[in-house]
Amino acid sequence: MNDQHITIHAPATVANMVCGFDVLGFAVHEPYDVMDIRFSDRPGITIINKDDYCLPTDPEKNVAGAALLAMLEEIKEPLGFELGICKQIKPGSGVGSSAASAAGAVVAANRLLNDRFPKQDLVRFAMNGEKVASGVKHADNIAPCIYGGVTLIRSIHPLDIVPLQAPPLYVTIVHPQIEVRTADARGILKQQVQLKDAIRQWGNIAGLVAGLLKSDYDLIGRSLEDVLIEPVRSILIPGFDTIKQESKEAGALGGGISGSGPSIFMLSKDETTARTVEQQMQQTYQRLGLDHHTYVTTINNEGVKFTS
Amino acid sequence: MNDQHITIHAPATVANMVCGFDVLGFAVHEPYDVMDIRFSDRPGITIINKDDYCLPTDPEKNVAGAALLAMLEEIKEPLGFELGICKQIKPGSGVGSSAASAAGAVVAANRLLNDRFPKQDLVRFAMNGEKVASGVKHADNIAPCIYGGVTLIRSIHPLDIVPLQAPPLYVTIVHPQIEVRTADARGILKQQVQLKDAIRQWGNIAGLVAGLLKSDYDLIGRSLEDVLIEPVRSILIPGFDTIKQESKEAGALGGGISGSGPSIFMLSKDETTARTVEQQMQQTYQRLGLDHHTYVTTINNEGVKFTS
């Protein structure tokens, strides 16, 4: 048994990137969870909470535990891991809190195993954590958390992940302290959509991917339009329309609901704009009397980061 | 009045590029229409047919005429053009015959006017020709004909055209000699689609755009999947499923219905594969006893070409 000890930062991620519902997500530098892992003499997964969120420590009910169990199942050796989790990404905030735990755990464990598994396998393991968190094995937070940058999940079955290089982008995130359950946000979506709206949506995602790969900020901005999901879901988020309009007037390229909310994100070309957007978000929620938290950060091209 | 005389080749184009229904199209080198234009002493548009298709010579009923009339309306000068058209792209074949006439006419006329209008304006004028041909002002044949290469029409209102660089691609086209009216092909589409299918479609178009811009042939191949339009429209085209399956078995990256059919196109990485695909297409239609015509060509990055 080696006594190696790995510490990582597992970053927040923004899924459902506007027109890229269910398929496009990106990682940011802040906030992030801090996790540490070592081999344990006791086979299986031991979870030690180092924060105040009181998340389950039963591995089958813990997103990080479920991800590690999926990994262990494939290893077929009686290994044990002891995992410490200090969450700084608030659960339920819509910026991939569960994905950070699940992705961080398997990336850290894989390092203990001398990087035995390629990234795609790690995504597959970590998706079991998402299943525990929301009932759905989605990958649009997990994949950018593990690969870094902006990530396309072209397909889930079979899993097909395409990292997309992007030009430098500043990200302003506001998390209004209300609860939007992922299951609820999913439940209000219409299962049938107009073909003409779907066409507009795939014109936009094609434009967004082209804009990212060509570093064409104007094209990115023009393509950041969601005619299908946002009009339905944004009603769950007080102040959404005001924040979006004021952010764009302040020079943001665009943005939308982060994940299934309630956080809202906006992309900007430069830090000054991103900070102005932050101030306006703060003013809007002060006016509405809603507790909130903001971040100004950048796209994180590294994903999970090893700190020791 | 200058006596300049412009001759051009206006290429065939493939619209509705698989998952890029209504938004992605590309130009090919063959077939193409030959057109010549000069100023005329008589104001307005004079059309001279130089082929056997007996298309209308009344400019308002002729796709090239309608495109030029839209241009003249914006010029607000009493100009006259004499336009000769020798069509080699069979009308109704599904490879942008009307678009070639409309786009070729305005590109040629614009050269007489010392390139007064930018390409986007030319697309706008030429779309009036598509209106005459099919009742719909679509741009997914016009734009690649004028810009060349693979073209994304992110939006029609406002018009937003994004040229996408692509790696070298061979194109095999088969035109079975049956008639599929654009209006019929449009009529059988469902106006409502399942959200889950739309998500799969926009995952694929995002993958296709990324594959083209990254010159990733495997990703292009994996993304050439249309779960919404092709399953409905392909029933109008005898032999479609066989041709698609055999083409992929022969090594083609993928393909689908060209425009609204009846032509079928397949993309390949190399000429040998493209020629094998052609032979199999020919065998299929011989077996079915259907007259047909095939082309093996490449993506045309130039669009309308000036020959004098």
From TrEMBL, chains A, B:
Q: In what pathway does it function?
A: Amino-acid biosynthesis; L-threonine biosynthesis; L-threonine from L-aspartate: step 4/5
The subcellular localization recorded is: Cytoplasm
Q: Which GO cellular component does the record give, naming just one? A: cytoplasm
Q: Where does the GHMP kinase N-terminal domain start and stop, copy by copy?
A: 64-149
Pfam families to which the protein is assigned, alphabetical: GHMP_kinases_C (PF08544), GHMP_kinases_N (PF00288)
Q: Where is the signal peptide?
A: none
Listed GO MF terms: ATP binding; homoserine kinase activity
Keyword set, alphabetical order: Amino-acid biosynthesis, ATP-binding, Cytoplasm, Kinase, Nucleotide-binding, Threonine biosynthesis, Transferase
Q: What EC number is given for this enzyme?
A: 2.7.1.39
| Residue intervals of the GHMP kinase C-terminal domain | 209-285
Is Nucleotide-binding among the key words of this record? yes
The record's catalysed reaction(s) read: L-homoserine + ATP = O-phospho-L-homoserine + ADP + H(+)
- UniProt record, GO biological process: threonine biosynthetic process
Its function, per the record, reads: Catalyzes the ATP-dependent phosphorylation of L-homoserine to L-homoserine phosphate.
What name does the UniProt record give this protein?
Homoserine kinase
Species of origin reads: Hydrobacter penzbergensis
Q: What is the lineage of its organism?
A: Bacteria, Pseudomonadati, Bacteroidota, Chitinophagia, Chitinophagales
